[in-house]
Design a protein that fits this description.
This protein is an alpha/beta fold. It has six helices and 21 strands. The longest helix has 15 residues.
Length: 356
Amino acid sequence: MEHIDVAVIGGGQSGLAAARALLRRGLRPVVLEASGRTAGSWPRYYDSLRLFSPARYSSLPGVPFPGSDPDRHPRRDEVVAYLTAYAAHLGADIRTGCRVGAVRRPRRGGGFEVELEGGGRLAARAVVAASGTFGRPHRPALPGLERFTGQVSHAADYRRPAPFAGRRVVVVGAGNSAVQIAVELAATARVTLATRAPVRFAAQRVLGRDLHVWLARTGLDAAPLGRLLTRRPPARPVIDDGRYRAALAAGRPDRRPLFTDADGAGIVWPDGEREDVDVILLATGYRPDLPYLAPLSGALDGDGNPRHREGVAVAVPGLAFVGLEWQRGLASNSLRGVGRDAERIARHLAAGLPRR
């Protein structure tokens, strides 16, 4: 069995940031990426996706986001190219096509055994779970959804509006992706955005400057707000330059309260109206994708979510997490913020591992 310092599970933005931080502390991480490329979930997001943060605030540590205009909002494919180049620049041991099936404690000694699907094992002194959330789309229990005979999709499966042209679509959700997808679809389909509460907006520009300038200057972006949260994190407002608020005000798409029932090809709105619908598209977010940690007692709670304090496992020494929403603060699962959290967990792990 191959013996390594740290197994970093996931080769997207979180895993790459963790690898860099570990290398800086003299450790030898091995990054295990299930897919064939080091870009995380970005290649699978919808085609029109743009970052809400400007390029100057969208970098991992050590390599600025490229381009002549640092104030532009990069597209999905730019992020893919950036992460691919970052991985090549890193000089870390990155192994693609390596999906982790399970992480266990060995029968003798300390550390971890990392089992790969298809065979193969690694003995690691520490493990960083950085596999993100895209593999675990959240599908809430909505009234009557199990009886709906039309198409039910998740935003994870959405790429472009063409397949929905001319159809009746209900997008469920009130976050950035829900609003962005609903507005895009409304150009070619009849779309309603269904939400439990009115959509909340945050201005993209405040006092003539991008919102992220103020988040950085005030220190709010890096503040340890995660430790103040005792329940599920609050919903984020939709960052808007004015176009999304205007689209909803014009009814393209219209916004309605969440339907109260579904049956056959139809749904029932709160006012009692029944309407036939072709597609219900769930833009209802994701949950941490960590099934490989199930064999580790105390690593996950009953819902499969990590038990941690600012990225450090509370019951499994040597295990850490990177890239969780609100892991430490507002920007923890973003390009601009994940590096700070990676540095913290790398420092913690290095302090607990004796030098070889």
